[in-house]
Predict the structure.
Amino acid sequence: MAYDVVVLGSGPGGYVAAIRASQLGFKTAIIEKESLGGICLNWGCIPTKALLKSAQVANDIRHAEAYGIEATGTPRFDAIIKRSRGVADKMSKGVHFLMKNNKIDVIMVFGKLVDNGKAEVENNGQKQIVEGK
C-alpha cells in the first residue's frame, strides 16, 4: 500500500495531521490499533472530564438548598460510567466521520515505524509494509 502521508496513531495530533494532509491533496492513511481518537478521547481526558462533570453536578445538588432549591440526588455509578463511555464513543464516531469525509484510509491494526517513510502493520499474524512518500 502506498500513500503520500501515513499517520501512525489517531490521537488529537494524529487525526488532525491526517485531515490537513488530505485537505492539501495528499493520499492519506491513518494507522490505529484500537479506537479512533487515541487514549485522550477514549480513556483519558474526555471520559475523565465527563466523570468530573457528574461529580460537579452531585456537589451542586448537595448545596442546592443554599440557592433556595430543594433537591435530592443519589449517585448511580453505573449510570455515571455509562454516560462517560457514551460521551467518548460519540466523539470517536465523530473522528470516524471526519476520516470518511476527508477520504482518509483508516487501517485498524497495530503499526510501527520500520524505516524512513515506512510503517509495518500486523494483522492476524501477517505483516505488511505501508509506505508514505
User: Anything to note?
Assistant: Residues 4 and 133 are 5 Å apart (CA to CA). The chain is about 45% helix and 25% strand. The first helix runs from residue 12 to 23.
